[in-house]
């Protein structure tokens, strides 16, 4: 998904203030879809989990959520999260048996999403766009 320099008309003018509000926006879109397009409960669970992880990462590690959008496409839901940090997400290497907090979200996002695109933004920050199948 290439959109370098592209404007994001689907990004909400009003940003979610919390991760719960981000999930609610995604759920509202899915609830508005025709039943044959809405997918399975498992697909919705995966979509909401990825939403939570991306929004949490933007808030905790990305300098804040600066853009948020969700839209329906032919092959799934596209979720766009923009934050203020130019730092790219990383998967942390963990020793076997590690059970501490953090470091599991990005690998989970990459595993559940059909496609992931990270675009550094000219004024700083980055946009992460994921395509989530609804199965």
Task: Give a structural overview.
The chain has 135 residues and is α+β, with helices and mostly antiparallel strands. The protein has a single domain, classed as Heat Shock Protein 90. It is built from 4 helices and 4 strands; from the N terminus they run αααββαββ. It has helices at 19-32, 35-38, 41-61, 105-112; strands at 65-73, 76-83, 115-120, 126-132. A 4-stranded antiparallel sheet has the order 1-2-4-3, with helices on one face. β1 and β2 form a beta hairpin. α3 (41-61) runs antiparallel to α4 (105-112). It is globular. The model is unreliable at 1-7 (pLDDT under 50).
What are the SSEs and their pairings?
Blueprint: H1 19-32, H2 35-38, H3 41-61, E1 65-73, E2 76-83, H4 105-112, E3 115-120, E4 126-132
Antiparallel strand pairs: 1-2, 2-4, 3-4
Helix pairs in contact: 1-3, 3-4
- Shape, per Cα inertia axes: globular
The helix-strand sequence is HHHEEHEE
Helix proportion range: 25-40%
The CATH class, by name, is Alpha Beta
Proper CATH architecture: 2-Layer Sandwich
Structural class designation:
alpha+beta
Distance between the termini: 20 Å
Instruction: Specify Rg, calculated over alpha carbons.
Output: 15 Å
């Amino acid at each position: 998904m290439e959109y370098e320099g592209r404007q994001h008309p689907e990004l909400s003018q009003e940003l979610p203030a919390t991760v719960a509000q981000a999930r609610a926006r995604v759920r509202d879109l899915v609830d508005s879809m025709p039943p044959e397009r809405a997918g399975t409960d498992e697909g919705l669970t995966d979509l909401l989990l990825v939403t939570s992880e991306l929004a949490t990462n933007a808030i905790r590690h990305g300098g804040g959520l600066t853009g948020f959008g969700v839209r329906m496409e032919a092959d799934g839901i596209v979720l766009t999260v923009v934050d203020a940090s130019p730092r790219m997400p990383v998967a942390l290497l963990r020793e076997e048996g590690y059970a501490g907090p953090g470091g599991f979200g990005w690998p989970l996002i990459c595993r559940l999403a059909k496609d992931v695109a990270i675009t550094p933004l000219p004024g700083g920050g980055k946009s992460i766009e994921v395509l989530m199948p609804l199965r």
